[in-house]
Amino acid sequence: MADDWAEYADEQEKIAAKMASMQLPKTAASGDPTLPPVTTFMPTSSTVTSAAASTVSNLASPGSSPVDGTGANDDDESAPSMADVSLINKRLHDQLVKTTSDIEVLRKDPNSPLYHVKSFEALNLKPDLLKGVYGMGFNAPSKIQETALPALLADPPTNIIAQSQSGTGKTAAFVLTMLSRVVVSNQWPQCLCLAPTYELALQIGDVTKQMSKYMSDLRIAYAVRGERVMRGESLQDHIVIGTPGTMLDWCTKIRAIDLKKINVFVLDEADVMIDTQGHQDQSIRIQRGLRRDCQLLLFSATYDEKVMRFAETIVHDAFIIKLRREEQSLDNIKQFYIECRDQDDKFQALSNIYGSISIGQSMIFCHTKRTASWLCEKMTSEGHAVALLSGELDVTQRAAVIGRFRSGREKVLITTNVSARGIDVEQVTVVVNFDLPITMDRKPDCETYLHRIGRTGRFGKQGLAINMIDSQQSRQIMQAIESHFGRKCTRLDAQDMDELEKIGTE
């Protein structure tokens, strides 16, 4: 499509650059790894809306109904890669996510002590490092840090396999470990950290630079594409962060890094590593060159059988620290459904809802990008501050859109299902299923329904979920979802303004 969003965004870059919009690292490598990454300006909400409107003109003629929410799949999207999802979540969680999940610890050695800390002072950190931790806004250890840090910083060093989602403080935990183990007077690499992509490596590097701000003479190198090391040259940087392919070359072909001098080896995003062709083998080859007493730290967002096999190949005699998955409760989410005649009637019902109840921030889920673009244009024309998230945006653009939504610049996020899958956005009070979720074989998708409405009602707060029904098929999907979860949704009359006002105050 000649007029798609990506091309339109390129044409608008000069305009967007003048509008102090969100800045994010480009994917091209910086020439000097010690300098901040090159940044690019992302379009503002008005630019996004204009792009969406431009896209709509190619998708549906004026006045025509877009694709039925459970219908044609001519503009269905492919899901974002695990690496993309991981990168977006890392960029979005600049503050710790408060979690009530319990910690589950599996110890290989039952005689090893395990304890919790409630303050960073209890860890006996170097003064300059402690100053850096507080300078980053960490007042007390997060839930996973309380348990992980004593084991991470123990002597003799302990190998760790840890599960933790973005935002729980796990990056800071392993960065703190690397910085604690470094002896600055030793002019050679002492810690290696592997990430699956260039962008994720830069993200970790940014945390490392912030935390080591007060540590004099500490040096960090990036083993990523675009960075060159001459054959025979020995690196004098203390910490090297990079991707598996480049890191392996620097260690084995160029021999700029002596693996026998490495004290800490970190493998971040292990679930993404095994999803990326070649990374698993490269990571294992690097690990095999390390000393047996090198501390191995492996972090993963998920722990299915495949990830655990990979973890056990890399890490021996490890503590395994996991966040117990919270039971998703529907008790604090009020669920309603609205019967509509067609797509336009659904939009009218949506307009009545937004005109009747007080909504902080909301997410609206559509089945296809065509419907999402159409709805974005319609809501924008009514004066709503709308962000559009679809598969036409690359990972940096998606991060910019979600970042603006989280910061409150836009109050409504319209998204297709695959674009939002795995993306954790908090502070949402209302979720609207403009189209009910279905699987590829057009069956009710109860898991996705739970994921969608779980964007609201976070951490015990009250949430509101509204489902749009416009056909016999969508009615059957709604009934199947009700049956699956064992609870009925309440019928809502979108034409009764008094009734609509009540749901916002109950």
Instruction: Find the CATH topology of the largest domain.
Output: Rossmann fold
In percent, how much strand structure appears in the residues? 5-15%
Largest sheet: 8 strands, mixed
Radius of gyration: 25 Å
Strands of the widest sheet, in order across it, are: 3-10-4-9-8-5-7-6
Per CATH, the architecture of the largest domain is 3-Layer(aba) Sandwich
- Low-pLDDT residue spans: 1-74, 95-114
What is the helix fraction of residues, given as a range? 25-40%
CATH class division of the largest domain:
Alpha Beta
Discrete helix count: 19
- Termini distance? 47 Å
3D shape: elongated
Domain count, please report it: 2
Task: Name the structural class.
Answer: alpha/beta
Average pLDDT rating: 75
Number of strands: 17
User: What is the H level of CATH, i.e. the homologous superfamily of the largest domain?
Assistant: P-loop containing nucleotide triphosphate hydrolases
